[in-house]
Structure formats: structure tokens, C-alpha cells
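If your schedule permits, I should be very grateful for your opinion on a structural question. The matter concerns a single protein, recorded as an amino acid sequence and a row of C-alpha cells. Could you please explain, in whatever detail you think fit, how the C-alpha cells follow from the sequence? I set the record out below, with my sincere thanks for your time.

——
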Amino acid sequence: MEDTELGRKSLSRREFLAGTTAVLAGGSLLAACGGSTSTSSSNSTNYTFVLIQGVKGDPFYVTMQKGAQAMADKLGVKLLVDGPAQFSATLQAPIVDAYIAKKVDVMIIAACDKQAMIAPLQRANDAGIKVISVDTFIGNGDYANGPVTFPLSYIGSDNVQGGMIAGQALIKAIGNKGGIYIENVIPGISTTDQRQQGCEQAIKATNGAVTLVGSNYDNDSAATASQQVSALLSSNKGTQVNGIFGTNLFSAEGSAQAVKNANKQGQIKIANFDAPQQAINDLNSGAVDLVIAQKPTDMGSTAVQYGVYALTGKTSSIQKRVATGYVVIDKTNVNDPASQNAIYKSS
């Protein structure tokens, strides 16, 4: 997920190898097809799908929508798109209920909370709607053996792996020794929780050469992140910080501002998870040092294909877990075609 700042329309969203120019191969089964917005009449199925985004207007979800729409056009599916104005389960649950009432055939959703969205999506499933998770999951994400098994599939990045890649790249950037601080978003978001977990695993793997200085939650606000990091840098622990991992755009942006205010830009390395244009601008300006891009286009296109498989009896073609990959971007490869293609679209 690329999470957006609460109470503000998204400007951007939602996973760094030891060699930061690597592209990790994803498990996505389908390549995205373009971004057309019209539905096909020659291959009409009369199916209606809805893509419920984590938050409306966020470039991560806009990019996902393009992939979903391209596949919907190809397969003749009517695709509706909706989402809350903020990344909030409280706002997202009524949207789910509204599309249950509309009797859509398939609900593709980036759930805003892994626990709070179980009941609303269970209602959708009970109403005969096929439920597919993209980007985020409900329960523990193991739809084969976990506590929640009714969704057809979870299609999204391996966020533990993504956090570990981010941690590894950041560790290399700080010279393989020192301290790392993690600026996180909101407890209970599956993606960002796992990114922190993965980064902590990378730190632990250094056997003490790199330590975790601390972590905090900024409620998806760049301003709060800036305040928290500023307080850290002015404390006794401030001298221990050599790198900061921002688990989403706003966490990294706020951290970068605090580092700049402390006149430590360049001294403290910053890793930013997700690749909207703003993150690339921050990379080019030196505000951040690393950017990791997910593949939301693949998430959207695969989800629509899976929905059609489910409705046409091809369930053997559906995997319960599809892990999409990453593109790791730094100043050495930012202008490479693979990096440029990985930047999220704002419209």
C-alpha cells in the first residue's frame, strides 16, 4: 500500500537489495496491458466488478486501477472504482456495504485494516460476491490455512521481504554499521507492519553491527513524522541515528524534513517505501537516498483476471497467494527504463 496522509488528498503511496540497482522478479502471473478506460463490447461478459481502493486518488491506487481497467477492457468486464477519502476502515466499511447492495459479482479490495475489515468482507462473501485482496490482506493473509480463508486470493507485495530489502539497502548505505530508526504509519495496517518486521530482521542479521534505535507511528502524517524525528534527533539518542526507514511516502517525507532541519542531510540516509513522482523528486533532490517501487499495475490486472476465472469455473487457475515484485531505485539507476516504468501514475 502506499498510504496517504490523513485529512488531505493524496499527493502520491504503498516495499532495497544489498545492490540497490536490482529488480526483484515478482510472482504476478500477468503483465498489465495499458490504461484504457472504456469497456469492450466484443467480449462482453455482463459481469460487474468493483475495485475498492485503500484511499481515493492516491497514485499507487490510480496505477492499480489502470492495470485493472486494462484487463477489464480485455475481458469485457464492467469495472467500478471507489474508495474512502482517507485510509480508514471506518470509512471503507460502508463502501463495502454499498456494493453488496449493488450486487456486484466480484469485489477487489485493498482493506484498510486487517481485522476491522473481516466482518464487512464476510458479509460480501455471504452475499455471493467473490472477494479478492490486493495490496493489503485481512486476517493474517494466509487464505489457505489461516483464520480467514474466504477471499479467493491475496495479490500483493511480500512486505516482509520488502522491508528486509529496504533494511539491507539502508544498512549498505550507512556503511554496514550504526543505528537505524523506523518511522511507521498506523498499527494494524498489514503492509506497513510487515515492512517494519522485515527491516528489523535485516538489522538483526548484522549481529549487532547495526542496531535499532527506535520506532514510532505518525498516523500517516508527514508533519507528525517530522516532529517525531526532530524530537529524536535532538535527544540523547539522536547521535546514534545513521539511517531512517520510512515505511511509506509521508513517513519518509516527514523524516527527510526533520533531517534537513537538523542540518544532517546526507549524513543520515533515508529509505522511502513506494514510488510516486514525489518520491522520485525527493530522490533527485537528495532528500531521500533510496526508493522502492511496488507493482500495483500487476496487482490490478491479475485480480480482474482471477475474478473472471472464479466466475467461469476456472478455480484451478487461481493461486491463494500471488506475490508481486519490486524495483529498487537510487540515483545510479533512476533514469533507467525499468525505474521510470515503475513510477506510479497520478492520473
Remarks:
- Confidence is low (pLDDT under 50) at residues 2-42.
